[in-house]
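Anyone able to model this chain together with adenosine-5'-diphosphate?
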Amino acid sequence: EVVLFTADENSNNVKQNVVEGSENVSEKELSVAQWIYSNGKKAGKFTDSLTSSDFVYYPLKNLRGTYGVAGLKIQNENFYRENETLIDNFMNQIAGAIERENLNQKANQALVLEESDKLYKTLFDSLSHELKTPIAAIMGSSNLLLNIKSESNKATKEQLYNEIHTASLRLNRLVENLLDMARLESGKLVPYFNLYEVNDLINSALKEFEVEKSKHEIIVSIPDKMPLLKFDFGLMEQVIKNLLQNALLYTQEDSKIEVKASFDEKLGYIIISDNGKGIPEQDIQNIFDKFYRVNNKIAGGTGLGLSISKGIVEALKGTISVENKTTGGLKFIIKLPLN
Ligand code: ADP
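re: yes, here you go
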């Protein structure tokens, strides 16, 4: 029979962990276990101290600390003597295993803390910028519109309406990204698969960039025989919008952005590339990480867009990868199942 005790980290009092095949020990045995824990020495039956105990007790300890106490109920003293060294070794191994488990837990807690610290910082640094810019645009433009007296100022009005529209789309994308992130993290992202035309997907995503589009050249090429692909329309649209927004944001005015589709027997490919500066090679491996941003001078951004896009594409049983083009610029390759 084996009894196990572990200590509450804050009080240093041991309590019994009732394991299969063991029963609750008496108060007397518990106080013996407590003594072993406090003194860090083997004691109980067949030893030099506390010999009236039913069990022989071992502290589960190593050089760095004592993690608990284990007691063995052994009737036959000869059996005990013959196996003493073996039992000592077992106890050392158990102590080592508990220590490793404790350290793992602590490392995980530290990681969670570090992550939430990062999240907190991002919410304040980047999100506040991402929220403030479109809100300021909406406030400013709507205020001007309210104060425009003359009916004739049609062009100015149109520009202000456009600014409000663009800013609200930007806010909407941010909110959608944050919601997707929350869904991905909680495992609650349930894709609704169906077969769709890539053409519809690209056109629908492009609609959101009417204003930005005019400053760049966007070339879409989809083969006539392009088969339907299997995905969730809303989620995939979010991915394409993220990639297009990046291509528009991180490249110079007049840049050329290409959206291409192709296929083989098993997969459909959607390739979005630009002729901007690309990203430094050493950043390629981290670019899909949450909150990762390349050190550049462009303000704003949350570093979430690409990590969400990857999460979504993988939830849709596809893959996404990125490379710098040899001719300059960045190229994202999405592979999705045909059916
Ligand atoms: P965000 O745009 O909010 O910073 P993303 O996850 O969408 O976050 O992108 C991460 C980083 O990748 C960006 O900060 C940017 O530096 C870089 N990046 C993304 N797309 C491009 C692109 N087409 N050209 C150059 N750099 C890009």
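The first strand starts at residue 2 and ends at 7.
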